[in-house]
């Protein structure tokens, strides 16, 4: 038998491709990148949930922390939702230039409150999308130290923050703790209303200073 020439081979290939295209469901298999049936790297159906979760923010807008400050601001968990903390930002100014150790702690039991901040400083939970439901996690902050009831809180992250003089031309430094999104890494989770995530200043006194704390979290 004589071998097929290249033109006949090409014609047979095109005919086979046309038949495959006409088969039921073939269009679901044609484009794995931009069309139906998109798979992830493990071969499972890929679901893009970015930006689809109910997300909330709350800010402590310039509080005067207690002397020898410990936990200054916390995000309390929820009895009805799973709360995942995605970002915490801390910054501030002071009457005396100081380096402040900042840690982010996960308490298995709630602090007994100190003196709660008032006025515009109160951290209010805001919806990042007005169509979302009301937040169930509760942010709070204190101007006197609370009693920390967890004898062995988990320290999730720590850093040293340079706090410049009030009205100084020196740029204010800030500490950013960001979680999740790195190869499937999970954000800190508050399971139930008895857990809280707290910003702790390591018993440091910020003289005549103001500290700013911003929380961001999701609820599912």
List the defining traits of the structure above:
220 residues, mainly beta, six-stranded antiparallel sheet, five-stranded antiparallel sheet, 38% strand, elongated
SSE inventory with pairings:
Elements: H1 6-22, H2 27-30, E1 54-63, E2 69-76, E3 82-93, E4 98-107, E5 126-127, E6 138-141, E7 154-163, E8 174-178, E9 189-191, E10 196-204, E11 210-219
Mean pLDDT: 85
Return the string of H and E elements. Answer: HHEEEEEEEEEEE
Termini separation: 68 Å
**Please, how many helices?**
2
Low-confidence stretches: 20-34
The proportion of residues in beta strands is: 35-45%
Under CATH, the topology of the largest domain is which? Answer: Jelly Rolls
- Could you describe the largest sheet, including whether it forms a barrel? 6 strands, antiparallel
Could you tell me the radius of gyration in angstroms? 27 Å
Total beta strands:
11
Task: Give a brief outline of the structure.
The chain is mostly beta strands and 220 residues long. The protein has helices spanning 6-22, 27-30, and strands at residues 54-63, 69-76, 82-93, 98-107, 126-127, 138-141, 154-163, 174-178, 189-191, 196-204, 210-219. The chain has two domains: 1-47, no CATH class; 54-219, Jelly Rolls.
């Amino acid at each position: 038998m004589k071998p097929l020439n290249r033109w006949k081979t090409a014609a047979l290939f095109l005919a086979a491709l046309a038949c495959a295209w006409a088969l039921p469901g073939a269009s679901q298999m044609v484009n794995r990148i931009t069309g139906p049936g998109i798979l992830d790297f493990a071969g499972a159906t890929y679901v893009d949930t970015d930006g689809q979760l109910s997300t909330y923010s709350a800010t402590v807008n310039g509080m005067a922390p207690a002397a020898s400050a410990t936990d200054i601001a916390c995000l309390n968990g929820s009895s009805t939702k799973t709360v995942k903390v995605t970002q915490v930002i801390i910054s501030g100014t002071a009457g005396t230039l100081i380096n402040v150790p900042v840690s982010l702690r996960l308490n298995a039991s709630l602090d007994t409150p100190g003196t709660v901040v008032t006025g515009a400083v109160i951290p209010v939970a805001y919806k990042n999308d007005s169509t979302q439901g009301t937040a169930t996690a509760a942010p709070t902050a204190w101007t006197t130290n609370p009693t920390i009831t967890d004898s062995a809180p988990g320290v999730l992250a720590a850093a040293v923050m340079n706090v410049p003089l009030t009205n100084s031309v020196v740029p204010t430094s800030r500490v950013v703790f960001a979680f999740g999104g790195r190869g499937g890494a999970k954000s800190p989770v508050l399971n139930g209303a008895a857990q809280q995530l707290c910003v702790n200043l390591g018993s440091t006194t910020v003289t005549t200073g103001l500290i700013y704390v911003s929380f961001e979290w999701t609820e599912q």
